[in-house]
Amino acid sequence: MLDLDLVRPRFPALAETGPTGEPLVHADAPGGTQAVDAAIEAMAGHLRAGTANQHGTFAVSRRTDLLVDTVREQLAGFLGTEAEGVVFGPNMTTLTIHLARSLDVQLGANDTIVCTQLDHDANVSPWLALAARTGTTVRFVELDPRTGRLDPASLEDVVDERTRVIAFPGASNALGTVVDPAPFVAAARAVDAWTVMDGVHTVPHLAVDRHALGVDVMLCSAYKFYGPHAGILAADPQLLTALTPERLRPAPDEGPERWQTGTASFESIAGIGGAVAYLAGLGMDVVAEHEHTLTARFLDGIETLDDVTLHGPPEATQRTPTFAVTVAGHTPNAVAQHLADRGINVWAGHYYAIEPMYVLGLLEHGGAVRIGFAHYHGVTDVDRVIAALAELSS
Ligand SMILES: Cc1ncc(COP(=O)(O)O)c(C=O)c1O
Predict the structure, then answer these.
(1) Are residues 67 and 205 in the same domain?
(2) Number of domains into which the chain is organized
(3) Which mutation among 99, 127, 200, 268 tests ligand 1's pocket best, with the greatest number of atoms within 8 A of CB?
(4) Which of 230, 252, 280 is where one domain is finished?
(5) Contact between 112 and 141 (Cβ < 8 Å)
(6) DSSP letters of 139-182?
(7) Cα separation of 30 and 176, whole Å?
(8) pLDDT tens digits along 15-30
(9) Does 322 contact ligand 1 (Cβ within 6 A)?
(10) What percent of the chain has pLDDT over 90?
């Protein structure tokens, strides 16, 4: 059982109060979570102790080497991947663009790339751009707007012998849908394609094991799991060796650093280490169990609100505590403002998930309000959101 009295003090930002005098409800977790003390202290500690670039002869530089190696090992354990396949970058989007660019020389007009209608655009646009450069065709696995889930039959329709890459989400940052990677991995293996899983919305909510899932490349962002603004690419090291990233001539020509452009943010890497240590200590199963309680509470709550429509999976299983809702008679922006006035922070719009928003028919209408909880929320936070929505519902 997760003990909120122990968890919440670990997040200094949660102490801030809003316009009502109550603590802010940061229900914008899918857009970025608050940082845990372990991450904040690791970042400050790195800078305070003295920083230097890697691979020097002097002790401060060797300390940076040790830091980077240690955090790679931590991530290997946390994400079920090899330390040699862990690449750091500024964010997931930049890393995905970089990865896609490395395929410029591998793909051609006879190949296809498979994307999905459930993805954040960071796992779509880089593949569309690759296709535009190489003449490759992009095909989409369809989202069923009634269930908020990808249609498995449509995966079979779009994958064939010409498919080289299958890009899919671990979970939707818009609808909260959790996606089973197994059919994507099986389809890719059958035709010798690579899988690229966007794990940005998965890693904060569920235990992830890249190896066990059989995914070739997985990407995530530390600022969505209580760490600093930084991205992580976790890949099969053999795949990284087989591809040729754009790089400077003197840059390392082997290992994950071959994939990193310029100097890494060592303070961010320190912070990632702090966030991973915190989550590993807490246990992702404990996080998932607690978040399931929040999910069930929210779903029960909105059932009672006639004017509020949930877009996405209505059931509490196979989903994260992320909910896209619209309120009859109020624009998403107006609802977000109403909640902000009550100390509840949420996003309104498409949150870069333009494919699902289009399929749901919401893109042209201001998108939806996204309410996203994290493990540091309690049922009282959920109840405050429901009460604030109830004020808008007849
Ligand atoms: C599911 C998902 N994928 C990718 C991204 C892009 O991540 P980053 O901001 O690290 O580029 C986001 C950010 O909101 C996201 O939610």
Answers:
(1) yes
(2) 2
(3) 200
(4) 280
(5) no
(6) EEEPEETTTTEE-HHHHHHH--TTEEEEEEESB-TTT-BB--SH
(7) 9
(8) 999 999 999 999 999 9
(9) no
(10) 99
CA of 156 to the centre of ligand 1 (A): 27
Q: How far apart are CA 267 and CA 42, in angstroms?
A: 8
Beta bridge partner(s), residue 105: none
Task: Output the six-digit token pair for 233.
Answer: 């690419």
Ligand 1 centre distance from Cα of residue 92 (Å) = 6
Residues 245 and 249: their CA atoms lie apart, in Å, by 12
pTM of the predicted model over 0.90: yes
In the structure, how many helices (H) and strands (E) does the chain have?
14, 15
In a shared domain, residues 176 and 297: no
Same domain, 109 and 254: yes
Residues 165 and 127 sit within 8 Å (Cβ to Cβ) = yes
- In this structure, what CATH number is given to the domain that contains residue 194? 3.40.640.10
What is the model's pLDDT at position 40? 99
Q: Is the same domain home to 309 and 253?
A: no
Cite the DSSP H helix spans in the chain.
4-7, 37-49, 59-79, 92-102, 125-134, 152-158, 182-191, 210-213, 237-242, 266-282, 284-303, 332-340, 354-359, 379-390
Range of the domain at 355: 4-31+283-390
Q: Which of 235, 256, 280 corresponds to the end of one domain?
A: 280
pLDDT digits (tens, 9 = 90+) for 349-378: 999 999 999 999 999 999 999 999 999 999
The Cα–Cα gap between 65 and 56 comes to 9
The reply to whether 290 and 274 lie within a common domain is no
Best residue for ligand 1 mutational test, from 117, 350, 352 (most atoms within 8 Å of Cβ): 352
36, part of any domain: no
Q: What is the band of 394 on the pLDDT scale with cuts at 50, 70, 90?
A: confident
Which CATH number characterizes residue 358's domain?
3.90.1150.10
